[in-house]
Amino acid sequence: MPNSSSQLELLRSVADGIAALFFPNAEVVIHDLSTNKIAYLANNLSKRKPGDDAGLEGVELDGGANVTGPYEKLNWDGKKMRSVSIAARDEQGKPSYLLCINLSTAMFEDARNALDMFLSVTRLQPQPQELFKDDWQEKINTFLHDWLRRENAALGALSREQKRRLVSDLYHQGAFKAKSAADYIANVLSMGRATVYKHLRELKQE
């Protein structure tokens, strides 16, 4: 095991690496448990500084787990942080330093809120029936994905036989009545146009 000085040097490098990897959203703080002071701080998000009181009085780590968390805490600006604390032990197994990684989740929460607002169904209007009553592409898409769910199949992994059956089912649903439907279905199913037209000729002869 490293001595206290080399251990702190190693932890500082780890702290700098984590802070650099998750910049600007991660702060890493090293607490010296022998002095109950902050020994090092990388990417300061909490407005503390080395030498400040660590606030760890009464914390028992001797028999505890080396990793605590993740847990949630509130930063000075009211924004939430998700934190993990890691105990570094000396040669006798006694905790000497506590490395705390504080990840600001504000950016992720803002992104989630933006997505929720953008995708909110309350902002959608009903599809205008007159404008899209002959939208054969959407009708094909709806039938296609209902068919895939029933068959528990993935569009990109359909076998030749599955594609043949799907073309047959689409044909019997009238999907090929639209002028460009055959080309569209061939593209969606990644089939050659000649193969689709071959299946259609066979179906018409039944």
TrEMBL record:
It comes from the Bacteria. Residues 8-113 form the YheO-like domain. InterPro entries: DauR-like, DauR-like_HTH, YheO. Residues 140-201 form the Transcriptional regulator DauR-like HTH domain. This is YheO-like PAS domain. It comes from Serratia montpellierensis. The lineage of its organism: Bacteria, Pseudomonadati, Pseudomonadota, Gammaproteobacteria, Enterobacterales.
